[in-house]
Amino acid sequence: MLGLKLTTDPRWANIAEDNLCEILSDHAWCEQKAATNAISLIANNSEYPDLVKALTEVALEEMQHFQMVTELIWKRGYTLGRERKDDYVGQLMKFCKKDGSRNSAFIERLLFSAMIEARSCERFKLLSTNIKDPALAKFYYDLMVSEAGHYTLFLNFARKYAKDVDVDKRWQEWLEFESVLIQSYGTKEQIHG
């Protein structure tokens, strides 16, 4: 369903499980950044009422996820670590086309968002099927379902509002780029690491 060209090595879930405090802190900040991204898209594209409505719901949901993850951190006696740079997301941002119309920049940001949600969904699925803790496995399964919805939402908005971009062609370019990029990740206790 996600169209990702390369799946994460299941051993990444073992790295995550061995470092739950770190993975949960990183996850919390990923949720906060996802909310911020949705708000930024709203602020820069407020002329689309359906997008504003849908992304307001996404921003609220992502902050609820942030809250859920931080509560899980504290319940387990961990400390929420400091926000850290997400190199994977930084590399995706560099792949965004910077030349072109306002519309093409908008579509690039939607595809960028869809890519992050797709990989997060794939990683959450991996956690849900490989973590030994049943409560945590269910937690990640539920989040996987949510992320899949966000992925399709961003991709559908890109298709709906593209004026000068062949979205399906550009999405394939994103998938190809990401399949090479992700090969450098999967060894750290980070959602995208």
Automatic annotation (TrEMBL):
Task: Extract one GO molecular function annotation from the record.
Answer: tRNA 2-(methylsulfanyl)-N(6)-isopentenyladenosine(37) hydroxylase activity
Single Gene Ontology BP term?
Answer: tRNA modification
The record, for Gene3D superfamilies, names: 1.20.1260.10
Pfam families hit by this protein = MiaE (PF06175)
Q: What is this protein called?
A: tRNA-(Ms[2]io[6]A)-hydroxylase
Q: Which organism is it from?
A: Arachidicoccus rhizosphaerae
Instruction: Provide the organism lineage as a comma list.
Output: Bacteria, Pseudomonadati, Bacteroidota, Chitinophagia, Chitinophagales
